[in-house]
Amino acid sequence: MPELPEVEAAARVARRAVVGRTIDRVVIGHPSIARRWSVSDRRRCHGRRIVALTRRGKSQLLHLDDGGTLVVHFRLDGDWVVDRAGDALPPFARFAIRCTDGRRLVLVDPRALSTVTHHPAAAPPTFALGPEADDPTLTATGLRARLVGRRTSIKSALLDQRILAGLGNIYAAEALWRARLDPRRPAGGLEASELARLLRGIRAALADGVAHLGRYRTGGRTVAWRVYDRAGAPCRRCRTPIATLSQGGRTTYWCPGCQR
DNA sequence: TATTCCCTGTGC
DNA sequence: GCACAGGGAATA
C-alpha cells in the first residue's frame, strides 16, 4: 500500500489516534524493530506526550514533548491499526504505542520490513530527500534541474527518493504511462515538454490515488490501475498489450505502443 | 550505478 | 517448490 497517498492517509489515522495523548509504554513485537531500540530509547518514550505527527516522503514523524522523534517507515506492507490496550494484539503486530488513556496504535506488517526508530532531541533525524512528489510549487524546470546529467532510466530516477520523495513502483509506472514516456529513457535526456507532461502525470497519478484511498482501505483495491499489474492486458489508450521489464530489480509495467 | 539483503506471505 | 511482492540501506 504505502506510497505517498497511502502513507498520508495512514498518517491522518495515526494523528487522530495519538496526537495530544501521552505514551504509557511502547511495545516492541519483532526482532527487526528491537534491533534498533536501546533500553534508553524505550525509557525516554515513557510518559512523553505526542505533540504532532507529520509526514516527510514516506516516513511518518511522531514529535514528542521532550523534542524527541519517532520515525516510522512502512516499507512494503506496514499499516496502522487503532485499538485498545488489553485487546489481543492483531496479527503481525510489530510495534505499538500504548497511551495512558488506553488507546493503542499498532503497526502491523506481515513482512516485518517496517522500521521504527527513536531520535532524542539532541540527535534529530535527517532525511536526504528531494521535494515532495505532490509539492504544488514544483515546476518542470525544477524537475529538470534534479534530473540533469542523470544516466539512469527515468523510471529508476522516479524511485530515487533523493530526487523526488514519495513515489514508489506503482505511481512511478502510472505517472510515466500518463505522460506517454518510455520508462527506459535516460532521466537526463528528457525535453522540457516531456518534463511538463511527466509532472502532470505525477500529479494526476497521485490525485487518483488519493481519490480512491477510501475504497482501497476498506477491502481490496477495486480501482483499476492504468498500467500497473496489467501485463498482457490491452493498453487503455491504444490497445497494445501491456509489457513488463525489470529495472533496478523492480518490475516496470508499460505500454510499448504509446510510451515513447 | 547496479546488485544484495532484510522478512514473511501468497500465488503460480 | 519457487518467484515475486508497492522500499531502501548497504555493498560492490
Q: What shape does the CA trace take?
A: elongated
The end-to-end span amounts to 28 Å
Strand-residue proportion: 15-25%
Low-confidence stretches: 216-221
- At the first level of CATH, the class of the largest domain is Alpha Beta
Query: What is the H/E string?
Result: HEHHEEEEEEEHHHHHEE
Class by alpha and beta content: alpha+beta
- DSSP helical segment count: 8
Provide the domain count.
2
Assigned CATH architecture of the largest domain = Alpha-Beta Barrel
Q: CATH superfamily assignment of the largest domain? A: MutM-like, N-terminal
The helix fraction, in percent, is 25-40%
Largest sheet: 4 strands, antiparallel
Q: Quote the average pLDDT.
A: 92
